[in-house]
């Protein structure tokens, strides 16, 4: 799961980032309106934590931009502004929740969990594909009711495939989702190949009824056998 923090208070941004990384999220940040605008335009996120008052612009304008792009990212507004009008405007523009500063990090994490469960998984934390049960929040995989250990990147890859079952996923899209927007600095995608190879072996050894197909020269696709 990838989260973008749009927050200009450096200390708060750093605190949130460290906490979410401990929860195994991939985390990116933006300190001002322009940076956030560019990232939202170029990349996909599972959740965006959005401050309203930003250098160079207003967070509510970013919500409008998301709507214009037709994107459906989960958005939680985190703002010191506590007026009813601000909350109504944010929620009307498509925000999924609104949290007023100061707040406890534990509450923010709970809000993130809630919006992801509600919007992405219809209230459930689990995705069932074939004989595989993926618990997105617990970050576990069971095959035929037996637990299969995955490292962090293997789970992130499988989770991304589960959200895009039967869809072609390019190597660049997979790398950007799992490793973040600094992936464009990489010389090649060999590291993806090795993670996919290890994940395939674990699925095969556990007799999973799903497999990751290679679409040569382009990317991969998750299908049921």
UniProtKB/TrEMBL annotation:
Pfam families: Response_reg (PF00072), Trans_reg_C (PF00486). Residues 2-116 form the Response regulatory domain. The keyword Manganese does not apply. Residues 124-224 form the OmpR/PhoB-type domain. One of its GO terms (molecular function) is phosphorelay response regulator activity. GO terms for biological process: regulation of DNA-templated transcription. Keywords: DNA-binding, Phosphoprotein, Transcription, Transcription regulation, Two-component regulatory system. The modification 4-aspartylphosphate is found at residue 51. The keyword Phosphoprotein applies. InterPro entries: CheY-like_superfamily (IPR011006), OmpR/PhoB-type_DNA-bd (IPR001867), Sig_transdc_resp-reg_receiver (IPR001789), WalR-like (IPR039420), WH-like_DNA-bd_sf (IPR036388). GO terms for cellular component: cytosol; protein-DNA complex. Residues 124-224 bind DNA. It comes from the Bacteria. This is Response regulator transcription factor. It comes from Formosa sediminum. The lineage of its organism: Bacteria, Pseudomonadati, Bacteroidota, Flavobacteriia, Flavobacteriales.
């Amino acid at each position: 799961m990838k989260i973008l923090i749009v927050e200009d208070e450096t200390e708060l941004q750093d605190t949130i980032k460290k906490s979410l990384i401990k929860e195994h999220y991939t985390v990116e940040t933006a300190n001002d309106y322009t940076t956030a605008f560019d990232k939202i335009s170029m990349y996909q996120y599972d959740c965006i934590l959005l401050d309203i008052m930003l250098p160079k612009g207003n967070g509510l304008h970013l919500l409008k931009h998301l709507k214009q792009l037709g994107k459906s990212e989960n958005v939680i507004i985190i703002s010191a502004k506590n007026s009813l009008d601000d909350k109504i405007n944010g929620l009307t523009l498509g925000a999924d929740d609104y949290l007023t500063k100061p707040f406890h990090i534990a509450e923010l994490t709970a809000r993130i969990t809630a919006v992801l469960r509600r919007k992405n998984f219809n209230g459930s934390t689990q995705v069932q594909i074939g004989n595989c049960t993926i618990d997105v929040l617990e970050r576990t995989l069971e095959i035929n009711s037996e637990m299969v250990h995955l490292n962090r990147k293997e789970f992130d890859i499988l989770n991304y495939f589960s959200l895009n079952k039967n869809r072609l996923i390019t190597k660049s899209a997979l790398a950007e989702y799992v490793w973040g927007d600094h992936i464009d600095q990489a010389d090649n995608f060999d590291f993806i190949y090795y993670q996919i190879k290890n994940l395939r072996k674990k699925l095969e050894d556990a007799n999973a009824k799903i497999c990751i197909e290679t679409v040569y020269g382009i990317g991969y696709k998750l299908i049921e056998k």
